[in-house]
């Protein structure tokens, strides 16, 4: 069995779509008017964004979406790109037990932590 897709409910579909395209490299595959969009990461994973309209989505504390990147330098690159675009980012962090585990928490347009 292979995970096929993840659906994220968002307030502003166009803003969330732009964020995932511009910062995370997703490509829109199917646009269903202003209700939902299906995006592809280029490696077989699909992200579905669904508009909740004015009702804000409710996610539990600690909810986040994780991405793997090849090197800590790529994490640093993305960190600087997000900061330059005025995206809310936390401090770059790493694990003492695993020097390759480097991460940055940031909020996309809908305030999902990634």
Give the SSE map.
Blueprint: E1 5-10, H1 13-22, E2 27-32, E3 36-40, E4 46-51, H2 72-84, E5 93-94, E6 102-103
Parallel strand pairs: 1-4
Antiparallel strand pairs: 2-3, 3-4, 5-6
What would you say this structure looks like, in words?
The chain is an alpha+beta fold and 114 residues long. It contains two helices and six strands, in the order βαβββαββ. The protein has one domain (5-54, 63-103): 2,3-Dihydroxybiphenyl 1,2-Dioxygenase, domain 1 (Roll). It has helices at residues 13-22, 72-84; strands at 5-10, 27-32, 36-40, 46-51, 93-94, 102-103. A four-stranded mixed β-sheet has the order 1-4-3-2, covered by helices on one side. The protein has a two-stranded antiparallel ribbon with strand order 5-6. β2 and β3 (36-40) form a beta hairpin. The longest helix is centred in the last third of the chain and has 13 residues, at 72-84. The protein is globular, with a radius of gyration of 15 Å. Mean pLDDT is 79; it is low at 110-114.
